Amino acid sequence: MTAMAIDSVVVRQRVEDLDAAVPFYEKLTGTTAARFAFAGVTLASVGPFLLFAGPDEAVQRVAGVAATLSVSDLNAAVEEAEAGGAVIVMPIQPTPNGHRAVLRHPHGGVYEYVGP
């Protein structure tokens, strides 16, 4: 049996002013931010960072997730994590950038899994 592979990890960071924060992270990573909105939150993906800002109520839905884990087979990753004791907080669903699921690992961390 082949173990699930995590292709990359994206660090999530809440910021008060997205426009003010983005230039720092663009310079730090040498990449240009990709901006988008999701569930009432404005976001910017900059290298390995996902910056987000918005009203407290909307941001709380995003802020409770420690990191985003990119996987090549989302269904298999969710099944394997669940078999290992993870609890599905949000089942797989489509997003503007692919599909996502949110899981609570057996030791308490909450992670977003994303994939095709």
From TrEMBL:
Q: Which domain of life is it from?
A: Bacteria
Against InterPro entries, the record matches this protein to: Glyas_Bleomycin-R_OHBP_Dase (IPR029068), Glyas_Fos-R_dOase_dom (IPR004360), VOC_core (IPR037523)
Membrane spanning segments where?
A: none
PROSITE patterns per the UniProt record, alphabetical: VOC
Domain VOC intervals: 5-116
Gene3D superfamilies (UniProt xref): 2,3-Dihydroxybiphenyl 1,2-Dioxygenase, domain 1
UniProt-recorded name of the protein: VOC domain-containing protein
**From which source organism is this entry?**
Streptomyces nojiriensis
Q: From which lineage does this chain's organism come? A: Bacteria, Bacillati, Actinomycetota, Actinomycetes, Kitasatosporales
